[in-house]
C-alpha cells in the first residue's frame, strides 16, 4: 500500500492540507491546473499569504512535498487522493460543482490504470449528497471500477480559518470523517493518528452537512450581533459592552460576538446560499438563513451611511478605505465587505484611495482602476474621511488627527480612539 498522498487543488485548503500532511511525515504531491501556482510551490514560494507558511514550505519542499500539473501520475503513485478544488456558487446561489466534477472525472480516468487500492477523499465543501451521488458515480464511470471493492470514498470537511490556517491544520477543534466503509475510514483516520482532538466518524452526507451547519451557524451569529449592534448604536449603547455581558453566559460563549461591517470571505456567503438552495430543492424554505444573508448584505453600507452623516454629500470627497482583505492575516478579498463599500462610495461620486498591507493587489483584480495608496498614513493624510474595514495592527498607530474615522471592525483599541478626534464605531 503506497501511502503517498495526492492533493488535487492547491488553493487555501489544498496547500495547507498538503503542508500539514507533509509536516506530519507523509510524502505529498500537490496537483493544480494553474501552472503558475505549481511553479511557485516548487520554488518554495507560497502563492497565498498565510502566517507560518513560508517557513514550512522552505522546510518541506521538495523533501516531503512537491507540486505538479500531471494529475494522472500523481494519482497513480498515491494511496489517498484529496479533492480540494473550489466550489463557488452560481448566479442563482446554487453550488457550482464544475471543478469537483472535472477533478472526479480526471481522478477516475487515472484510477482506471491503477493496480492497487486507494481512497478518494472529498475535502471541498459540497452540499449533502454530492460525494455519494455525484463524485462516486463519476469515479466509477471513468475508472470502470467499483467503490468498496477497487477503491474507497470518504468526505472530510475542512474547518480552517484563513489567517490562522497553519495553526488550525495542526490543532483543529475536531476532525470529521465520513466514509462509505470501514476500509476507507480507517485509511483516512490513519493520517490523523497523531492528533488529540475528537475525531467524529459519520456517513458521507452527515459529514457534508456538519460543514454547512457550522458555517451557517457562525454566519447567523454574526448577523445576529450586527442586528443587535445596529439597534445599540441607535440607542446610544456600545455593542462591545453588550457582547461582553452576553459572552460571559457559558451557554453563549464570547467567540464570534463582535459586531461590525459584516462577514466576508470565500465561504460564509456562498455556503449559506448553497444550503439555502439545497433546502429549497428539498422543499424546505430556510427563512432564518435568508435573513442572515440579508442583514449581511446591508451591513457594510452602514459604514458609508455613518460617513455621510459626518461629511454630508460624498460627491467629490476624498475617502480612504483602510483594509481590503476580508479579515486580517490573509490576502483574500473574496466577498470582502470592502467591495460593496467601495462600490457604494464610487456610486455616490466619492474619490476613493485604498490600502491594505497584503491584499491591495488582489483588490486591483476586482477594481482595476482602484487608486492604491502607498501606505495607511499617506491615505489618511490625503483623505477627507477614513473607513476602517480590516483590523490590521498597523492601522492602530496611524495619526488620524481630526479626520472623521468610521471603524467597522473594532480596528482601533480604546486608547487610539481617544487620539482620533472624530472617531465613530459602526455599532458602538
Ligand atoms: P481556491 O479557489 O483557493 O483553490 C482551488 C484550487 O483548485 C485552485 O488553485 C484551482 O486552480 C484548483 N483546481 C480547480 N480545478 C482543478 C482540477 N481539475 N485539478 C486540479 N486543480 C484544480 O479554493 P479554496 O479556498 O482552497 O477552497 C477549496 C474548497 O475548500 C472549497 O470547497 C471551499 O468552500 C472549501 N473551504 C475553504 C476554506 C477557506 O478558508 N478558503 C475553508 C474551509 C473549506
* Spatial order of the strands forming the largest sheet: 3-2-1-4-5-6-7-8
Rounded mean pLDDT score:
97
Q: So, CATH architecture of the largest domain?
A: 3-Layer(aba) Sandwich
The CATH topology of the largest domain is given as Rossmann fold
Return the CATH class of the largest domain.
Alpha Beta
- Beta-strand percent range: 5-15%
What is the strand tally? Answer: 14
Question: Tell me about the biggest sheet?
Answer: 8 strands, mixed
- Rg over CA atoms, rounded to whole Å, is 23 Å
Structure ligands = nicotinamide-adenine-dinucleotide
Helix content: 40-55%
Query: What is the chain-wise order of helices and strands?
Result: EHEHHEHEHEHEHEHEHHHHEHEHEHEEHE
Secondary structure tally, helices = 16
Structural class: alpha/beta
Report the end-to-end length measured between terminal Cα atoms.
59 Å
CATH superfamily of the largest domain: NAD(P)-binding Rossmann-like Domain
When the domains are counted, the total is 3
Amino acid at each position: 500500500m503506497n501511502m503517498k498522498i495526492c492533493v488535487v487543488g492547491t488553493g487555501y485548503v489544498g496547500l495547507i492540507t498538503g503542508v500539514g500532511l507533509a509536516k506530519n511525515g507523509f510524502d505529498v504531491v500537490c496537483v493544480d491546473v494553474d501552472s503558475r501556482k505549481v511553479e511557485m510551490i516548487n520554488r518554495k514560494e507560497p502563492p497565498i499569504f498565510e502566517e507560518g507558511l513560508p517557513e514550512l514550505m522552505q522546510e518541506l519542499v521538495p523533501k516531503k512535498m512537491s507540486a505538479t500539473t500531471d494529475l494522472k501520475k500523481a494519482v497513480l503513485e498515491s494511496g489517498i487522493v484529496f479533492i480540494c478544488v473550489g466550489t463557488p456558487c452560481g448566479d442563482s446561489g446554487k453550488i457550482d460543482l464544475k471543478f469537483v466534477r472535472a477533478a472526479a472525472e480526471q481522478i477516475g480516468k487515472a484510477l482506471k490504470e491503477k493496480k492497487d487500492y486507494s481512497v478518494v477523499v472529498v475535502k471541498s465543501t459540497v452540499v449533502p449528497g454530492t460525494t455519494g451521488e455525484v463524485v462516486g458515480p463519476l469515479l466509477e464511470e471513468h475508472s470502470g471500477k467499483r467503490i468498496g471493492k477497487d477503491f474507497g470514498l470518504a468526505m472530510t470537511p475542512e474547518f480552517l480559518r484563513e489567517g490562522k490556517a497553519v495553526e488550525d491544520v495542526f490543532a483543529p477543534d475536531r476532525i470529521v470523517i465520513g466514509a462509505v466503509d470501514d476500509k476507507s475510514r480507517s485509511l483516512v483516520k490513519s493520517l490523523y493518528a497523531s492528533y488529540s482532538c475528537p475525531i467524529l466518524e459519520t456517513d458521507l452526507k452527515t459529514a457534508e452537512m456538519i460543514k454547512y451547519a457550522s458555517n451557517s451557524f457562525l454566519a447567523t451569529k454574526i448577523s445576529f450581533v450586527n442586528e443587535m449592534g445596529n439597534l445599540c448604536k441607535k440607542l446610544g449603547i456600545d455593542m462591545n459592552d453588550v457582547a461582553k455581558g452576553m459572552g460571559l453566559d457559558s451557554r453563549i460563549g464570547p467567540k464570534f460576538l463582535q459586531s461590525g461591517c459584516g462577514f466576508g470571505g470565500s465561504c460564509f456567503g456562498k455556503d449559506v446560499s448553497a444550503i439555502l438552495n439545497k433546502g429549497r430543492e428539498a422543499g424546505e424554505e430556510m427563512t432564518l438563513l435568508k435573513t442572515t444573508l440579508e442583514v449581511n448584505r446591508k451591513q457594510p453600507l452602514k459604514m458609508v451611511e455613518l460617513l455621510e452623516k459626518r461629511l454630508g454629500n460624498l460627491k467629490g470627497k476624498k475617502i480612504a478605505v483602510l483594509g481590503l482583505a476580508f479579515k486580517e492575516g490573509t490576502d483574500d478579498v473574496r466577498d470582502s465587505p470592502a467591495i460593496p463599500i467601495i462600490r457604494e462610495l464610487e456610486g455616490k461620486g466619492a474619490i476613493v484611495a485604498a490600502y491594505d498591507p497584503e491584499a491591495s493587489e488582489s483588490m486591483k483584480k476586482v477594481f482595476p482602476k482602484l487608486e492604491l495608496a502607498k501606505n495607511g498614513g499617506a491615505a489618511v493624510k490625503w483623505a477627507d474621511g477614513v473607513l476602517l474595514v480590516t483590523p490590521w495592527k498597523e492601522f492602530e498607530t496611524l495619526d488620524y488627527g481630526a479626520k472623521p474615522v468610521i471603524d467597522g471592525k473594532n480596528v482601533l483599541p480604546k486608547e487610539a480612539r481617544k487620539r482620533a478626534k472624530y472617531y465613530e464605531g459602526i455599532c458602538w
